[in-house]
Amino acid sequence: MRNYAITLQMRRPAMSDFMNTREVAAYLRIKERKVYDLVAGKEIPRTRVGGKWLFPKDSIDAWLAESMAGGFAPPSPPPPRVIAGSHDPLLDWALRESGSGLAFLAGGSLLGLDAMADGKALAAGLHVLAGNEGTYNVRAVTKALAGRPVVMIRWASRRQGLITAKGNPLAITSLADLEAKKARLVTRQAGAGSQILLEFELARAGLDPAELETLPTPAGNETELAQAVAHGKADAGVGVQAAAEEYGLDFIALRWEKYDLVVGRREYFEPPFQALLAFAG
User: How many angstroms separate the CA atoms of 158 and 194, rounded?
Assistant: First the structure.
């Protein structure tokens, strides 16, 4: 594990007289849709100019002061001690053994970022490929958590590829073989890093996902995907090499990927997360 401590804090605007919706969301540390809810309820100072909502900074500051004096503070409370996002076997094990008190809620990379943005998790695990750029995670984090002070940590470099039954009975060597050999493919849920990679690689190979034979229910994490192949429910799926090895399955590598953790800057320095880092070394 390498901590390259990138701080993705979007520099706060110079705070002229007005803020737009994105800027006021970052200022209040809430999501943009929450701003629209406040506007709809006529709960926040605002003005409409040229069809767009603008928020006078002085009025927002006064509204904040008045709200807090009345016992209500719009900024979210501290998030629960949960890391959400993409499943990683090493992280799962480290959380169990480190004594950090952190729980793991596996549900896909983008859902993890959403949970963090909504204040339902203090950190997210992700491996999101940025298309033809070939980069991982920075773009997704910047989009989901713009304006928030966060630290991004390289947790692992992993090999992603096709997982097949032991002995590879269909002799699958590429994504094209999935269609040619009518292999039953187990996919992942929308927003999962492995699913994003699969869709990118299919498009690059000129393959139509609609032509593939897929299971009706996506796997919820790496373990479920490997189990579907191991138990004969699927012929192949895209996942990490560690999951294939755990179940004695064959693996055809597609690429190396970066699995990162992104955590709020305040939560990074608190004992639970530091306990995890100390355990991981």
Answer: 12
Looking at residue 260, its pLDDT comes to: 97
Are 125 and 85 in contact by the 8 Å Cβ rule? The answer is yes
pTM: 0.70
Give per-residue pLDDT as tens, 226-257: 999 999 999 999 999 999 999 999 999 999 99
Instruction: Name the CA radius of gyration of the chain, rounded.
Output: 22
Q: Which of 197, 249, 188, 172 is nearest to 221 (CA)?
A: 188
H helix intervals, the chain: 21-28, 32-40, 57-69, 89-97, 109-117, 138-144, 176-180, 193-204, 222-230, 241-246, 265-268, 271-280
Q: Number of C-alpha atoms within 13 angstroms, CB side, residue 196?
A: 21
Q: Give the separation between CA 190 and CA 193, rounded to whole angstroms.
A: 9
| Contact assessment for residue 117 and residue 94, using Cβ atoms and an 8 Å cutoff | no
- Report CA-CA distances (Å) from 191 to 129, 141, 218: 11, 13, 12
> DSSP secondary structure string, 68-109?
HHTT---SPPPPPSEEEES--HHHHHHHHHS----EEEES-H
Phi, psi of 11 (to 5 degrees): -60, 125
**Interval 180-185 mean pLDDT:** 97
pLDDT band, very low/low/confident/very high, at 34 (cuts 50, 70, 90): confident
Question: CA-to-CA distance for 281 and 279, rounded, in angstroms?
Answer: 5
Q: What domains can you pick out in the chain, each with its CATH number?
A: 7-69 (1.10.1660), 79-157+259-280 (3.40.190.10), 159-257 (3.40.190.10)
Residue 151: pLDDT over 70: yes
DSSP β-bridge partners for residue 164: 236, 250
Given a contact cutoff of 8 angstroms between Cβ atoms, the answer to whether 90 and 130 are in contact is: no
